[in-house]
Amino acid sequence: MKLPLSLLNSTMPSGSGSLVWFRKGLRIHDNPALEYASRGSNYVYPLFVIDPHYMEPDPNAFSPGSTRAGINRIHFLLESLHDLDLNLKKLGSRLLVLKGEPSQVLIHCLKEWDVKKLCFEYDTDPYYQALDNRVKNYASTAGIEVFSPVSHTLFNPADIIEKNGGRPPLNYQSFLKLAGEPPWASSPLSVDLSSIPPVGDVGSCEILQVPTLKELGYVEKDQDEFTPFRGGESEALRRLRESLSDKEWVANFEKPKGDPSAYVKPATTVLSPYLKFGCLSSRYFYQCLKDVYKNVKRHTSPPVSLVGQLLWREFFYTVAFGTPNFDKMKGNKICKQIPWNVDDKLLAAWREARTGYPWIDAIMVQLRKWGWMHHLARHCVACFLTRGDLFVHWEKGRDVFERLLIDSDWAINNGNWLWLSCSSFFYQYNRIYSPTSFGRKYDPNGNYIRHFLPVLKDMPKEYIYEPWTAPLSVQTKAKCIIGRDYPKPVVSHDSASKECRRKMREAYALNQKLKGLVSEEDLKKLGSKLDEDEDEGQEPNPRRKRQKLIN
Ligand code: FAD
């Protein structure tokens, strides 16, 4: 794994050197940190640090991967690094890979190498904020210039918060008003770099090649199926071009109208993992979408359009950045305090696709095997775990998503779990996704279920969403006996959802009381009145003014 010396630059150029620290932003296009490092430097060190905390196998985890990331995301990251290395080589450089605690490795490199400029993309995640501060403190004492531009997002969340008097906007419309058009949107982004100065002397540092999964200690056959989405900038740009080539589709894109059960050709772009790792620049994506809009007669608008989706991303980044303890219920001012159950058995059934509800279990299998599911599919399983059926804490579900999604993103994941559990942003807890009728609307034959849960592949379509209702003769013919080959439902949806609504009502009333908005008497009334509402998946009640369920 150690790099042969011949591949390193033996004729060391002298003069000013720059270090580009890659973490996300794994791309050449629209990469201001790389561009700045390349400008006026005699040599550039493109560095990626393998953080054992993130990459090392955890033998005790419930599925292959490290403690923090499932094997699919690690695989996707390695592919992205490999692609970055190839693209850097085309420009006369290469990726330097080192292993260790990132701030220690960085500081060691800064001491060892002749670096005048340290360049890395600004990151709002708490993990990186702490890490970056350590590295920046060292650099400033050592007299090294630090350049840390905002290029992961369209806006700098701090600017939006400042415009709003120091507080993050808590709804999408007020976010849009504050944000306006991004300042860079009308000028061309730097998409092509023609060359990068060569790599300088690496001293005693043990430079590695981008490792394989095996070299990191993983046994590939432990994972029964890998995600079909390949990591890297090249694939991101190919996928982007493919999506944009259908201008009508882009112009008419309207979420939530897509089909969550479409898995052969998903209903949305599947660009999220590329945006997560910065293989695709969100700013470039935004500009390309605006170009399409210029050339069509009509197009959809935020919140439902594709630009609107990118702005949801910005919205959650802004609120997350401006909210202390955003990823927790306790100490989080925008989060309702709800007495969620601690039930490890129910949590494990959900996580391991054993709830007995095929629609829910198929989605959870897709999560484990692919690390990506459609937005509405995520809605269904998040609602089921929390306020819909199992009443398990949203933080537990968040943890499972955080580990297994290939697009796992701190701000967006936490923001959506807060939304789906009716802990913040969205408050109509009476509106619950039915685990049996919602999926059926899109996929009456249950093809999605048959694909991800092959044990049910021969179940007649009448029973595929509720196989426990199939007569024993039908189960026998389908070679799937419920309770033996596939589990019985862990809860009855009718009674569990009723109970969840009651608990939510009480919790909401208590939250109001804590704010001093409801009297003791009102609280009693609220607690005893069980207000019914229809499930998602059935016809909406036109008399009731509804808050939008879908973000
Ligand atoms: P498209 O519909 O093609 O949208 C384009 C891009 O817009 C996406 O790639 C994404 O960057 C952004 N976007 C779309 N929807 C949202 C949204 N609701 N909130 C914020 N940004 C959005 N998305 C993540 O990227 N990472 C996560 O960890 C994540 N966790 C989620 C957890 C839950 C419980 C739920 C309900 C949703 C979560 N999402 C997350 C949001 C959303 O489901 C995905 O971004 C989307 O499904 C990705 O598919 P796509 O790229 O085809 O999206």
Automatic annotation (TrEMBL):
Pfam families: DNA_photolyase, FAD_binding_7. The lineage of its organism: Eukaryota, Viridiplantae, Streptophyta, Embryophyta, Tracheophyta. Its EC number is 4.1.99.13. FAD binds at residues 268-272, 309-316, 407-409. The record marks W340, W394, W417 as: Electron transfer via tryptophanyl radical. InterPro entries: Crypto/Photolyase_FAD-like_sf, Crypto/Photolyase_N_sf, Cryptochr/Photolyase_FAD-bd, Cryptochrome/DNA_photolyase_1, DNA_photolyase_N, Rossmann-like_a/b/a_fold. Keywords: FAD, Flavoprotein, Nucleotide-binding. Belongs to the DNA photolyase class-1 family. This is (6-4)DNA photolyase. GO terms for cellular component: cytoplasm; nucleus. The gene is LOC111274466. Residues 16-154 form the Photolyase/cryptochrome alpha/beta domain. It comes from the Eukaryota. Its cofactor is FAD.
